[in-house]
Amino acid sequence: MTLSGETKINMLLKGWPPGTVQLSSWLAKNGISAQLLHQYKKNRWVDSIGTGAVVRSGSRVDYLGGLYALQTQAGMSVHVGGRSALSLLGLGHYLELNPRRVVLFGAANEALPYWFRSYDLGVSLDYFATSFLPAYMGLVDFNTGNFSVRISSPARAMLECLYLTPKHQEFYECYELMEGLNIFHPDTVQELLENCTSVRVKRLFLYLADRAKQSWMHFADLSGVDLGSGKRSLVKGGSYIDKYKITVPREFVQNEPSQL
Prior knowledge:
Elements: H1 5-14, E1 22-23, H2 24-29, H3 34-42, E2 46-50, E3 53-56, H4 63-72, E4 79-80, H5 82-88, E5 101-106, H6 114-118, E6 124-129, E7 139-143, E8 148-152, H7 154-164, H8 171-179, H9 186-195, H10 199-211, E9 232-233, E10 239-241, E11 246-248, H11 250-254
Parallel strand pairs: 5-6, 9-11
Antiparallel strand pairs: 1-3, 2-3, 4-5, 7-8, 10-11
Helix pairs in contact: 5-7, 7-10
């Protein structure tokens, strides 16, 4: 016995988390054919927001509702990261100069679908596709009230902020964030640092944590962290920090209370 179209739409709407997008490819795998979906659109049960994506008719979705579909239905690792993740976790609001710009990270081979980029999801998106950290490592569940999405944990978000500096994020902002984030779990930091492929990011992370006197530094075992060889430079004409073999803005070091 096959389910009727009316029964299927009732089941679909019943299990549809409010405020989320559904992908036609995922619906097809779950018994909602393209023809049936077309009929649902004609009957105004669902509305298209772009090729391959629909919402419940009359509903409004934001970027988190779109992200829900990418993660749970498309199997993508795209997630809220950097300063935006810290803001969602209540850890970075005082630095959020433009809360309507959201930073997303995804794996190097992942591209945002056109509907996600073109539909008005309520914010402007800055997307960075990179594999300097393993795709699913250091993520946490963020509950919106109606559904959950994966976002960066504080430690991963801090590493992502440093990945973006200085071109996409101010170095001084990174330090201010590090100062207020004395909540990292040593095991989480250890795992991320051991698997991070960016020597520059790892050295900056340890330098700022050292300067901010992060308590977890006393428990860190850096023997398994590859910090590379040779010097790294964040800016030209800056000050060289021999302990971490990295050059940082001169003004930042001049304001340092004590030499590391």
